[in-house]
Model the fold of this input.
Amino acid sequence: MREIKCDACHHINREGTELCESCGKPLVEKQQAEGKETKKLLNMRYDGSSRRSMTYNKSVVDRVWNFFSSVKVGVTLIVITLIASAVGTILPQQMYIPQNVQPEVHYKDQYGLIGQIYYQLGLHELYSSWWYMILIALIGISIIIASIDRVVPLYRALKNQKPTRHTTFIQRQRLHSKTDDVTDADKHTFISNLKRMRYKVTEDNGHVLAEKGRFSRWGPYVNHVGLIIFLLGALLRFVPFMYIDDFVWVREGETVVVPDTNGEYFIENKDFIIETYGDSEEDTRFKEALENQSGPIAKNFQTNAVIYRNVETVVGAEPQLEKFKEDSILVNHALKFDGFALYQTSYQLNEFKSMSFIIHETNDADETELASFKVDLTNPAEEYQLDNGFRVMIDQYFPDYYIDDGEPRSQTKNPKNPAFVFLVYPPDSSEPEVSFAGIGRNVDASGENQYKVGLQDFEVRDVTGLTVRKDYTLPILGLGGIIFMIGVIQGMYWQHRRVWIHPKNNGLWLAAHTNKNWFGIKKDIEKAIMKTNINMVVDQEQEEQELQKQQEQNK
Amino acid sequence: MSKVEEAKKQKRNKKKKRLLFRSIILLALLAALIFALISNFNNDEASLGVGDQAPPFQLKQLNGDAETLNLADLEGKGIMLNFWATYCKPCEDEMPYMQSLYPKYKDDIEIVAVSVDATQLVIDRFVDNYNLTFPILHDNKEQVMDLYNVGPLPTTYFINPDGEIVEVVSGPLTLERLDGYLQQILPE
Amino acid sequence: MGDLITLSGNFLYLAFILYLIATFFFAGTIRDKKTEGTSTFSSKVAISLTILGFISQTGYFITRWMASGHAPVSNLFEFTTFFGMMLVFSFIIIYFIYRLNILGLFALPIALLIIAYASMFPKEISPLVPSLKSHWLYIHVTTVSLGEAILAVSFAAGLIYLIKEIDQTVRSKRTTWLEIVIYSILATLGFIIISTTFNALNYNATFEFPFEGDISSVDYQLPPLAGPNEGTLLTTERMNPLFEVPSWMQGVNAARKFNTLLWSLITGLGLYIIARAVLRKRIAAAIQPLLKKTKSDLLDEVSYRAVAIGFPVFTLGGLIFAMIWAQEAWNRYWGWDPKEVWALITWFFYAAFLHLRLSRGWHGERSAWLAVIGFAIIMFNLIAVNLIIAGLHSYA
Done:
């Protein structure tokens, strides 16, 4: 490693150092502020300490490292991701199109050629595409490497802060002034004023450094750490036990196992409540808005639920339930227990619970009841002994009746459209009559039945749809978010301000630097030199700009 | 050792350390990236797969003499664990195959069919209709279905005598394939 | 209850008038002999009026909250009005840091435009659907609009910088783009003027047209330049549309929205042409001499400082609070809903802005352009995403 010896103070600096770490004298000829037209000012980034990645560029590893370390690369990645994200909002993503349609057909039908191309390019699932993930990951990698690479020179720069600085360093700061005659009293007033403004003052042989808000320099690194923790949290979602996403339907009055709890927890739906606006007195204030709406507006979806713990350890054996928690689940109010959370996400109203039938004579126009029975649709009995000597057997039960190729079948196990084939044994008869009965259907198979089974009444109940979530990544994401906010506030709402006082003969030279908010530091100095004869610092950047402008105008 | 040599050595060490440090970090980041990509593509639920131990359970038995059936009691036998329902057509199609092979393997392999129907009545009628003699269990609370993370019906697990899952078949089976899978889980 | 709503409306009206007068007083500061940053009579009156206006608008906010029972940030009118109010608030804060009078002359008209724009939407108080019923509604929406408002101040400062700094002696890409920015502000004004005019005339034209296999109807409040695809005009004595929108335009109201956009652009163009004809030069060139007194580097500083202050607030409200609420309401903290994505895009953009400024030395004009683009992204998310790409956040 080549080392650089400062010719002013003889300090040995590491390769790549631009401003002497001890006295601040420029070590390279072209040391100047980036992006600025002026050649006069120093580039104060990391106070000229050497950045590690810039010094070695030999092996592949080093090259990859340097690539990711570059802010240019980082910003480019951000901009590409930004554009890609925007492209994903041109048409709705697949998760937001109707569930019951073929995506391929839907995009073509709804959006024509554009839709077809969009689908073909896979943009309908852009945010879970491999390349979008890689983009996010590359940003993450860039954040990590760039931070590691910069935190070291910054640390060196902030550690090596000596009040004594080379005159070149002082003269080439953006804020600078020279005062020929300054009394000790004035200098003292100035310093104590700075102290009063919470500047930390170090003195060395008449040279003074007043410094404030140094911790804000760590802000970017702190917020980057926060971002990395957040990304790690998002990554951990892929670890199976960290994240569970499931769904369960629970009927009113029913108790079912909570999925993914290995049969440990059960949930009972005591009641499902749906409310709409316009029913209660206080809703009158929304009268106008409600009238402008075509349909009713939902006010509340709620499941009154009880969570039970199963103390029986054998799965599937008749569970022994102990009440664990009772609460209502609302949108915006999940029921939480043992790391799980149940969210109100869906519902079905009026599913059949039980049906009551009567038996009457087929040719009785009044349908006078001879006997009646009630079928519990969740657990229908095989046989019903009725009044007047009737007996009914259930031959077939179709909870969700439909005709498939001429055959009656059930579509699902849920009683959405229940239908029965009954065997009706009239009094003192062993020969049954076959009767088919369902919602709005009543078929006499033989056409010769003496008795008819008619639907008299039914009970319904609601079904609540709950999302079951367990997400152990949330605390990590939260921590990442908090650290990010701390870092970004630390870096943005505070500034690292420094003022150097360099004694020169009977007077002193003044220089000041801040990482942002130059307006603020000027005000500080203005206040501190009040009632002294020290000259106010001149903004050399501004001065130069104005000079250039004048020159241009003169042309 | 002279000072020059010492400095050189120090420099070499530093360089080595730096290379090592950077390599480790880059490798770790690359590993995380690959992990994310692979996980994103295997987005399926973490269901039970080949090589896993079949988790034990106990359910009500609807046919035969026994009241309940506990999977643990079948140790030493191969188990064909079939999840089905009466309203599921492909399930219905494969039932006769299972019934036809059942007598042949009965002593070495138990065929266990777990129905996820809601009511016992429909299962009873179904069993009578097809004259099924292998144990029919009723998982009315979907506990076992959840335990095995069963997705579409039918899903069949072939479990060897050691309790290890040898094959998972999602969808209906033909007679030949069924026979082939049963051969795989015969005790030695 | 009705009284409260009337009172609330009056407060808002008063605030609007006060902001308007304050703008004139800020304009008056240009003629003050003293340099920027010093208090003069007109600057004192201007800022006092602004504060009074802000208090009055706060009065609107509180009374409306009392009337509706929930924070008035739940529909497009309420949210946009609140955004205007936060813009004034941010301006007041920045004003007391920098005492930059010229900023008032630009920030207040933008706030006025936003509030006027808001009042074009239905103003009745609307009930909250279950997913909006949460304290996070206030926390998330207020923080995010405060953040965006501070970023909007950055736009105002950036715009002043560009008008002042861009060389107007020759025509260039930069002068053209600057005119486009000014034109889009005029188009917003055009929208307000044209909507108010036809509203006062009670204009209405109803169309019937096939939509998703059904016959739908749509009410136009502006004369139909662009009619619905295969639509038929039902109202008599109304002009027939000049053309029909293409069939790929989605949504029941797509044609009406497109027609409104067309009218706004045309009216804006009219305003622009009149202004050019009167001024006989580019609008920016006409404003430029008024900014002589203003220091460019101070504008640059204000524009950047507003981003530095606004970015953390926006992150907190637009991403962190948003994620917490999304987790509470929809059980996923992030769902790639268009509004969410555009918040992320905004965040990415300002992150890039800060990196370019801090690490790559993008100061002055480049930084000012970025501030303008950033504001365009915010406005796109605020308005276009709601009106065009409807997602979970679509109130209107």
